[in-house]
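hey so i finally got around to running the thing on that chain from the lab meeting. sorry it took forever, my laptop kept dying and i had to restart like 3 times. anyway pasting the input first so we r on the same page abt which one it is
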Amino acid sequence: MQTQSPSNVLRPLRIFIGGEDHHVRGLEDAIGFLHAHEADEVGEYAEMLLAQMEHARTPEMRARAWVAFETWSQAFGLSEHRFGAYSHAA
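ok and heres what got predicted. didnt touch it at all, straight out
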């Protein structure tokens, strides 16, 4: 099974949390976002995700880490969805 390259997978995200709109454009932005919100309720559930993202070295691992972050942010209702609607989380 062939994994898509990061450029095919990476789609910048807009995340709305705590009254702020964040633009997450890549894995480094996502890691920074998670570190900034470690003390928040959503940060409590991101420890394993953060470890995966920080240890992603190959393009395939980075692509998978990005998909995991994108999925996580959607599961928490933090990112815009297909039609641009936001769920507002605190």
